[in-house]
Amino acid sequence: MEQRITLAPNCSLTRSGARLFFGATCLFSLTFALFFVLQGFWPVLLFWALEMLGLGVALHASLRRRDYTQVVVITDSRISLVTRSQRGAQKQEFARHWAKVRLRSPPRRLGVSRLTIECSGRAVEVGSFLTEEDRCLLAKRLDGLVGGMNESPPLVGEIGD
């Protein structure tokens, strides 16, 4: 029996939606910029171009984030974490019996907590893109599936098999 948890950032903006948004924003703001250029305030056009460049870079970064996923697979003896991003896939494996799920408090008051799976001196962060609430829920779910060090609770469906 295995448990599979797939994690992905909440990126509802599609590539075509981003193009449409960017194009509409450029045209709408260009009309105002051209109005001021015709009044003699030509530097407005330079600032318009810088703003649109910044918006384009931000949209590009948002769209790149869509490709980032993590899959946690928990079996009777192993925990596998596969992380896929623009740079390719990376796989980490841990012995389930010796692994520990740890939710680390943020170092500063307004910081972000870190959820890690640790085993044999190695630690891998899970769900870094999740909200604080989702990270806490995932920590509880993983803790119930993995258990503490030196204990492996039965996976759902194992009881009575």
Silhouette: elongated
Share of residues in helices: 25-40%
The N- and C-terminal alpha carbons lie at a distance of 10 Å
Assembly state: single chain
Low-pLDDT ranges: none
Number of helices: 3
Largest sheet: 4 strands, antiparallel
Class by SSE composition: alpha+beta
Strand-and-helix sequence, N→C?
EHHEEEEEEH
- Strand segment tally: 7
C-alpha-based Rg, rounded: 23 Å
Structure write-up:
By secondary structure, the protein is α+β, with helices and mostly antiparallel strands. The chain folds into 2 domains: 3-8 and 68-146; 15-65, no CATH class. The protein has 3 helices and 7 strands, in the order E-H-H-E-E-E-E-E-E-H. The strands form 2 sheets. It has a 4-stranded antiparallel beta sheet with strand order 1-2-3-4, with no helix packed on it. Strands 5-6-7 form a 3-stranded antiparallel beta sheet, with helices on one face. Helix 1 (15-38) packs antiparallel against helix 2. The chain starts with a strand and ends in a 15-residue tail after the last helix. The mean pLDDT is 88.
Describe the structure concisely for a colleague.
The protein has 161 residues and is an alpha+beta fold. The chain has helices at 15-38, 43-65, 132-146, and strands spanning 3-7, 69-74, 78-85, 88-95, 100-104, 114-119, 122-125.
Descriptive key words:
about 160 residues, four-stranded antiparallel beta sheet, single chain, alpha+beta, about 40% helix, three-stranded antiparallel beta sheet
